[in-house]
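User: Could you walk me through two proteins back to back? I'd like the raw sequence and the structure tokens for each, with a short line separating them so I can tell where one ends and the next begins.

Assistant: Of course. Protein one, sequence then structure:
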Amino acid sequence: MKTLKYLLIPLILLAAITAVLINNRTQIQAKSVPRISDVNYVSVEKVSKRNLSEEFSLVGTVAANNDVNIVSETQGKVTGVFVKVGDYKPAGSILFQINDELKKAALMSAEAAYEKAKKDYERFLELHSQKSASDSQLDAAKLAKANAEAQYIIANKQYNDTKITTPISGYVTARYADLGVMVQNNSVVANVVDISKVKVKVNVAEEDVFKLKTGDEVKVTTDVYPGITFKGRIETISAKGDDAHTYPVEVSIINEKNHELKAGMFARVSFNNNIKSDVLTIPREALLGSVKDAEVYVVDGDNAKLVKLILGQETGTRVQVLQGLKEGDNVIVSGQNNLTVGSKIEIVQ
């Protein structure tokens, strides 16, 4: 019995120590596991009525008011060059001179023949009035005068064509002919653009194009001049759409020397043609899901309530609420992604 007693005592002590260690371990593990709070902290915004502008913007490309390729209307050797890239040239300025010796000689001959034909016609007209010339002689003199005048006009045109001029005022953006080279008839020798007024070309979707009309004022911005807004006006709206169901629209802008726009730049056109007054709106960030299948959480006492919405226009960071909310409702705008229906909530600022 004593031997058994001596054997049981260590076993009892070992069991007690083991029980204490297991209990301590359970308590330590319980403390190490973070407690999940049953309260969710959220931010809210009260639904209110605001003025909502029907504004949308599109990126387009700036184009020159006029962009003209200067074409030679004669052939010959270039004997004079009076332009370089970047020059500003008023309309009618001579850009190139083509060898004109033969054209000048032909003009002088045609002019002399025309003067002689005019005098002959005047003489036969006088003789005819005196019954000294027949009708056929007068008609022949009249025809000769007309032919000579036509030849003179042609020769004068060919001579003037040796001076290649610009039909518009603008900047020379390219020059394709140099001194001494031979140019052919109908060959492009230079390009001139008029940017005193520029156009921004954008493609407007079919659901928006009917909101616009020619003459509407718009705002134009560009990354080249941050903070600067240009006043534009809708110049044209195409009556025909493209394969993507968009319609070309041109916006004209008077170019400012202090903030000059150049052809080829990107620009953003903001169209704002209507303002809706006193409409319910909420922040776009409050929505769960897409705009077409929108839901939001609203405050219902200490709980979150899920509400389905029917939305209207979307402008910037706000959307119009057509159905589902009323003025004064508190919409959860932050923390809603962790909520479920009936979640306990606490509002924080």
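----
Protein two, same layout:
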Amino acid sequence: MSSYTITPGSVGRQAREWVPAIAVFVLAIAVWQGAIAAFHIQQFLLPKPTAIVSAFWDQRHTLWPAGWYTFKEALGGFALGSLGGIAAATLIGRFRALGNALMPIAIAANAIPIIAFAPIFNAWFDPLSPNSKMAIAGVLCFFPVMVNTLRGLTSVSPRQIELMRSYAASDLTIWRRVRFPTALPFIFTALKVASVLAMIGAVVGEYFGGSYDALGVLIRSKAQILDFQTAWAGILVASLLGIALYLAVALTERAVVRWAPENRPS
């Protein structure tokens, strides 16, 4: 296994991969700004991007502390849900009868809208405590991580298992040497999805009650007093933090799963 090195060619290739996304983003902002001016859309329906950016800068001392508070809730839920999903997938993969009993329950729980969980968790925990928001984010993260991890753990070639058995390897050794490394690309795919869902869960949970320092509460309160520019600026902060968590997972994947074709330097 060769070590992963960053070369000018790989950096240039990664930069070129971002060009289409940046171009589409700039085009979308231009269309947004132009459509408001052309069709005289009221600010309570859709503020101008320039007004949102202005509010983002003017209210930065309020928005970023609130965003950091919510980000910590999302990070806690991300960790709980992801670890729980990996542990559940390991148990289900090892004990198929247990998986047959628990899988319908997990599917049913995942089918319930998150806004139905939010008031219940706020009733179970202190509404002002971040624990309820972590629980909501954890529920959102649990199912995709569990399903993808289970798929990865069970996608091992039977020949690999037979080879390990021929060396009298234990189930734990097979899991550690074969099943878990094989499942890593699947796990990181799920973690990237969960990183976005965690931020969504934390913000949605705060809409039903939370600390005044929370971003979701700030967005709701600003919308109620018709300060839509600041409300949209809060949404921008949530988006940036969600992207940051996603990129952190993606960078970790590149460092850990170096043998995957998409992570190999060209």
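The chain has one domain: 8-32+48-263.

Let me know if you want the two compared in more detail.
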